[in-house]
Amino acid sequence: MHPARVNRRTALVIAACATTLAVGGVLLVPALTADRPAPAAASTPVSTAPVTAGDMVSETKAPGAIAYAVTTPVAAGLGGVLTELPDPGASLSPGSVLYRVDTRPVILLSGTVPAWRDFASGMDDGTDVQQLEQNLAAFGFFTDEPDAEFDWDTAVAIRDWQSSLGLERTGTLERGSVLFWNGSLRVDAITARVGQDVAPGSALYQTTSTEKVVDVAVKSSDRALAVVGQAVSVTLPDGSSVDGIIQMVGAPLSKSDSDGGPSSIVIPVRIGITDQAVIADLALANVTVSFSSALRSDVLTVPVDALVPLDDSHYAVELPPTAGSTGRELVPVTTGAVASGRVEISGDRIVAGLLVVVPAR
Fold first, then answer.
1. DSSP state, 343?
2. What are phi and psi of 69, to 5 degrees?
3. 152-164 and 127-138 are packed helices; what angle lies between their axes, rounded to 10 degrees?
4. For the CA atoms of the chain, what is the radius of gyration?
5. Percent residues over pLDDT 70 in the chain
6. Tens digit of pLDDT for each residue in 228-272?
7. Which of these, 74, 69, 70, 71, lies nearest to 86 by C-alpha position?
8. CA separation (Å) from 129 to 86, 88, 133?
9. How many structural domains compose the chain?
């Protein structure tokens, strides 16, 4: 491409856009009059792009980082000597041993209600009983329909489960011998050591969820872009992209400037990634999050560099040459919103699919 032509076109478009009128956050360019003279033809190599119909979307990018979704501490439920801890990075699913005290295992179970009492015959009905029976059924030891009553079948299922673990068949459970959690856990930082005396409540280690998310802080001025349930695009370190969904939008925070400048107000946003396999090998990696918002609906657009400046504020698009044509064929256009490298245009002969000339790439 001839540098002089590219520079002149780019400079005029930028200069004109800089003096256009912003209405409601949308960039507007004055209407083009058809009686303005067109610039002379040039022999610059060109390619074409179609006029596209659809919504005009503005894209805002923000830096983010991949992290594990939830951090949760694990504390001792039994008192005694700590005889086993899991390895950092280990994944724990329902049925896994969280740790051992005096060789007695504490087991991870699935559920949302914490264990707040011992499980034994004669106890009052409750959702915690049903939750326990659901786990015993998942392990293959409870064959009836789980309910809120601790009955003979519950005690038998517990005894069979205890036998499979090499434990005494009591048919009862201490509340500290199980930990209910909704999902699997990943072992993070270990804070205790094997051989240590622990009491109920002693900190043992930190865990995270096994799900990875993207955490990003958006400027307060971009708060409207962050809506729970909104789809976003996340660009990974290798340049590939993965789809994400905004899961959480937090309260505004004050963020200090790393260069010593004044602090700014940001909005913490958490983004869920459905395809976890794509980011399985990434942890604490920097990514770029693209938020999109519609500026105009059902409009015709072309790449910004398809505009041919007739003067400082009026534009046309150039049609590709046809057999036997001489000179350049310019079609005056009225321009509208500009976003993400595209500009809204309208005018006589401007229809979806029309090919227009753009600088050769």
1. E
2. -65, -50
3. 50
4. 32
5. 86
6. 999 999 999 999 999 999 999 999 988 877 666 678 899 999 999
7. 74
8. 28, 32, 6
9. 3
